[in-house]
Design goal:
mainly beta; 1 helix; globular; single chain
Length: 423
């Protein structure tokens, strides 16, 4: 009997070690249902909405190393992070799919659908090492901002490190007052936004205050609603909040909105922003320095495409260190725009959806017309890249090209996200 008890104790200890190493899977379904014990242990006993999720350590609580699988459907409760992961054991909150949904106990194929958060939002609440993953690019988890008046923020981040938001859609199509996609309150570092779509925000798509060492990549900015209350809107409005907004990256994104796209200078303390491999189209300005505090700002802007801006494409004021190389500007208005190339693109399409802004075949002045920037003093190996969005290496043939895509003879960039549909 003692041997049996000892063996059972060993098995229990091993199970505890495995759980600590690999984490626990927990489950949540839309609030308002009736799901057995609602302890999150499987799909038949899932948490009843986000407010029902237990956070912390130990069995049945969402903590470091654990995964919360989210069933598709409509949610009306906000998601407030209640615990932190660690560098080796992140907390992962992800949409469940047929191919990745944890346990089969209680699983239904209907749970593999879009997660829609109606008039409810996400708050990092000072937590670290948390990932929110909708799995399907630009749509897996959708946050819907209500119409009418009032101020709304789809995601609020404060005093948080190493948080990731990916494969999401922040939708403000119905709001024309004061809605923002991301609102940061300072103390944020190593934030990652990847494959996130933001649609028609009436205020800034991204208000960046006190954010450092962060990345926006493969983002899709889809339009703008004019604010009925006179809010000035930007895609990225970048401030320091007294803490600095430094050493950040915007890359490989499609930005289409009739406002200023990257806006600095409202307050000082913005340095070392690296902007490359993007398409900026149909805006007022692709980059703008505000006249309030133009000094002490460092922007490194290379291998972008800027097309059909109706204002001045680049509005960099005296005192701002704006460094630009290998950018293709075409069809932009406004005195003082950077030089305009000829139409070097496969399908310019007046900057509209469905265009192809990779480089057409020679003769083409943009091919081999660029400059190898890797030897310049501002080049930072940890922030910059020599690879474009399509996976081609700039300068692979011995000379850099101008624009967001290196010509490779059969250059086919990734398809426009406009053709995306949720499955």
């Amino acid at each position: 009997m003692k041997k049996i008890m000892l063996f059972a104790s060993i098995l229990l200890f091993q199970a505890m070690i495995l759980q600590a190493a690999y984490g626990e899977n927990l489950y949540v379904r839309p609030n308002g249902g009736s799901y057995g014990s609602e302890d999150g242990s499987d799909w038949g006993n899932a948490f009843d909405g986000f407010s029902d999720v237990r956070w912390g350590s130990g069995s049945g609580a969402l903590g470091a190393g654990d995964t919360l699988y989210v069933a598709g459907g409509n949610y009306s409760q906000s998601l407030n992070f209640g615990a932190s992961g660690s560098g080796s054991s992140r907390i992962t909150i992800k949409r469940a799919t047929a191919g990745d949904h944890g346990t089969n106990t209680g699983w239904s194929s209907s749970y593999d659908s879009q997660v829609v958060m109606n008039q409810c939002y996400i708050y990092t609440d000072g937590r670290d090492y948390v990932t929110v993953d909708g799995v399907t690019p630009y749509a897996g988890i959708k946050i819907v901002i209500p119409g009418g008046g009032g101020s709304y923020r789809a995601i609020t981040a404060s005093d948080s490190s190493y948080t990731t938001f990916t494969n999401m859609w922040l939708d403000s199509s119905a709001n024309n007052d004061d809605a923002r996609g991301l609102y940061t309150l300072g103390g944020v570092d190593h934030l990652l936004f990847s494959y996130v779509r933001t649609t028609k925000f009436s205020n800034d798509h991204y208000l960046v205050i006190g954010v450092s060492n962060s990345i926006w990549e493969y983002c899709w900015v889809d339009g703008h609603n004019a604010s009925s209350s006179g809010k000035h809107s930007d895609v990225w409005e970048i401030r320091d909040g007294g803490q600095g907004s430094n050493a950040n990256i915007i890359r490989y994104s499609d930005i289409n909105a009739d406002i200023d796209m990257v806006h600095t200078g409202i307050v000082s303390g913005v340095s070392d922003w690296y902007v490359y491999g993007n398409i900026f189209r149909n805006g007022n300005s692709a980059y703008k320095t505000n006249s309030k505090n133009p000094s002490g700002i460092d922007i490194y802007w290379y291998n972008n495409v800027v097309i059909d801006c109706f204002g001045t494409a680049i509005r960099s004021l005296s005192g701002t260190n704006f460094v630009g190389y290998n950018n293709a500007y075409y069809g932009n208005g406004g005195a003082g725009s950077y030089y305009t190339t000829s139409n070097v693109f496969v399908n310019y399409n007046n900057g509209n959806d469905g265009g192809d802004w990779s480089l057409k075949s020679p003769p083409n002045q943009a091919i081999d017309g660029g400059y190898d920037v890797t030897g310049l003093s501002w080049w930072n190996e940890s922030k910059c890249s020599t690879v474009d969005k399509a996976g081609n290496t700039w300068g692979a043939d011995g000379a850099w090209d101008i624009g967001a895509f290196e010509y490779s003879g059969s250059n086919t960039p990734p398809s426009s996200p406009k053709n995306f549909r949720f499955n």
